[in-house]
Design brief:
The chain is mainly alpha-helical and about 400 residues long. It has one domain: Ammonium transporter fold, CATH 1.10.3430. Helix content is about 70%, strand content about 0%. The protein has a two-stranded antiparallel ribbon with strand order 1-2. The longest helix has about 30 residues. The radius of gyration is 20 Å and the shape is globular.
């Protein structure tokens, strides 16, 4: 009944996207201090459990059931009601169970991205409440609006694999979180394990092929193009970031190379299945330069976005979505942009989508943190912040923390 090639590929892509959440945990874990490694890693891994439960209960339904042309769906497919092992998805090439699982992996990693912004400063009970509320109030509506036949889809806004849905919303939520919780008391916290950061980057880069190429939901020329574009953009961004930082600091920094690669991956995500490899290279260079500039601006403004979530994911997601409006090429996936087709309307819609998603994610995130803080303290105390793993979880990553 189902196409075995497409189904097999999508099972692999789903597994690759799942691997990105542990990869993110290693990436963030290496960037924080020795005494706070487990805290930040737990925030990523716990999403694997909680988000899966919520997605199965009603998240998938709110995202992909009913609500045509609207902001949110309905509960028609809650607990996978009406979906069984023989239910086809789309053109019938893959089972809906598989689409459910693939999209679930996106839902798992998106709120985990935000955690890098408030590293060392948020208490675990407050984070659990935030995770649940953010999924319901921010993530599910944007999935529905962009990919579930909702408002953005009706307008004609495109997002191949998550520039708006994943990276821009997470990045703007990160900025709101930083402004709400304030600065770390121990502002000199530095990466304790750059090799862990490298391991996390490798897992993210590897998993991103499933993230982007898998978003075509089948195997064809667009799938291959998205795969190639993903690698080209990441590579160009890594070298561009390292080069700019080398010029600024007089040293080629490994963390900069790794961060640049992630910036390139985030930036190409919305455009991966719509632009040529040449355009992907251009987008990658822009990502390395502009995301580096965004992080530098953040530092000058004194925003304590500990792991640069806004500068890498927020700015990268926005940049990639705008570049899609500029550089989309009809021969790739049937969509024209401003430069290769004079499609000013589409370019304007892409910019509008970013403006709406940025404002929505920022306001709702700040508001929910304010409400959560009325229920339970959000920010850690000074003593908790110094040794977060031991104080909040009763565990330490290393036998001797120094």
């Amino acid at each position: 009944m189902f196409d075995t090639g497409h189904t097999g590929f999508m099972l692999l892509a789903t597994s690759l996207v799942m691997l990105m959440t542990p990869g993110l945990a290693f990436f963030y874990g290496g960037l924080v201090g020795r005494r706070n490694v487990l805290s930040i890693m737990t925030q990523s891994f716990v999403s694997l459990g909680i988000t899966t439960i919520i997605w199965f209960a009603f998240g998938y339904s709110l995202s992909f059931s009913g609500g045509e042309g609207g902001i949110i769906g309905d509960f028609g497919k809650a607990f996978l009601r009406g979906v069984d092992l023989n239910t086809p998805f789309g053109d019938g090439a893959i089972p809906e169970y598989l689409f459910f699982a693939y999209q679930m992996m996106f839902a798992i990693i998106t709120p985990a991205l935000i955690t890098g912004a408030f590293a060392n400063r948020i208490r675990f009970p407050a984070y659990l409440m935030f995770l649940i509320a953010w999924l319901i109030l921010v993530y599910f509506p944007f999935v529905h609006m962009v990919w579930g036949g909702g408002l953005f889809a009706k307008w004609g806004i495109k997002d191949f694999a998550g520039g708006i849905v994943v990276h821009n919303t997470a990045g703007m939520a990160a900025l709101a979180s930083v402004l709400f919780v304030g600065r770390r008391r121990k502002g000199d916290d530095v990466p304790h394990s750059i090799p862990l950061v490298a391991l996390g980057t490798g897992l993210l880069w590897f998993g991103w092929y499933g993230f982007n190429a898998g978003s075509q939901l089948k195997v064809d020329s667009v799938t291959v193009t998205a795969f190639i574009n993903t690698d080209i953009a990441a590579s160009c961004a890594a070298i561009a970031w390292m080069t700019v930082e080398w010029f600024q600091t007089k040293k080629p920094r490994f963390v900069g190379l790794l961060t640049g690669a992630v910036a390139g991956l985030a930036t190409i995500t919305p455009a991966a299945g719509f632009v040529t490899p040449g355009s992907a290279a251009f987008i990658g260079v822009l990502a390395g330069v502009i995301c580096y500039a965004a992080v530098s601006l953040k530092n000058k403004l004194g925003w304590d976005d500990a792991l640069d979530v806004w500068g890498v994911h927020g700015v990268g997601g926005a940049l990639g979505t705008i570049m899609l409006g500029l550089l989309a090429h009809e021969m790739i996936n049937g969509q024209t942009g401003l430069i290769f087709g004079g499609n000013a309307k589409f370019f304007g819609l892409q910019c509008l989508g970013i403006l709406i998603s940025s404002a929505y994610a920022f306001v709702f995130t700040y508001g929910m943190l304010w409400i959560i803080n009325k229920i339970t303290p959000v920010k850690t105390t000074e003593s908790e912040e110094m040794e977060l793993d031991e104080s909040l979880h009763g565990e330490t990553a290393y036998e001797e923390a120094i």
